[in-house]
Amino acid sequence: MPFSFEKLAVYQKSLAWIDRCENLIEDSSREMTPTQKDQLSRAAMSAALNVAEANGRWHKAEKRNFFWIARGSVFECAALLQILKMRNKITQKEYEEFFSHLEEVGKMLAGLIKSVDNLPD
Fold first, then answer.
1. What is the CATH number of the domain that holds 15?
2. For residue 1, what pLDDT band results from cuts at 50, 70 and 90?
3. CA distances from 21 to 36, 39, 115 (A)
């Protein structure tokens, strides 16, 4: 029996984001610093993990809080992408593709937050 969060499009999209980040991190030609690699990996995972955790919570306020944390992790990834672009670790095209993916996840999370706000107390 699958967990309910596994059916969410935002969770699936977040998993895809993790995969993209891990491929970027593992690309030895990038010469990313250990700090950049670690921060990107942790921020990417945080989005998916917090979506999963939110779905394990009973109370509306707790669900909303974990979705907000997930959204914050998406924003953290966006800032990291800007740093990587600035340091020439990714191309402009890669930046735009990655950013577009993150933008979609962020919008999906905003929709989830709004849907939680509409739940009965």
1. 1.20.1440.60
2. low
3. 11, 11, 28
Q: Is the per-residue pLDDT at 87 higher than 70?
A: yes
Range of the domain at 14: 7-25+36-117
Question: What's the CA gap between 100 and 19, in Å, rounded?
Answer: 15
Summarize pLDDT for 55-76 with one digit per residue, the tens. 998 889 999 999 999 999 999 9
Task: Report yes or no: 50 and 69 within 8 Å, Cβ to Cβ.
Answer: yes
Q: Is residue 81 part of a domain?
A: yes
Which pair of tokens denotes residue 68?
């907000």
The mean pLDDT of the chain is 93
The encoded tokens of residue 28 equal 């030895």
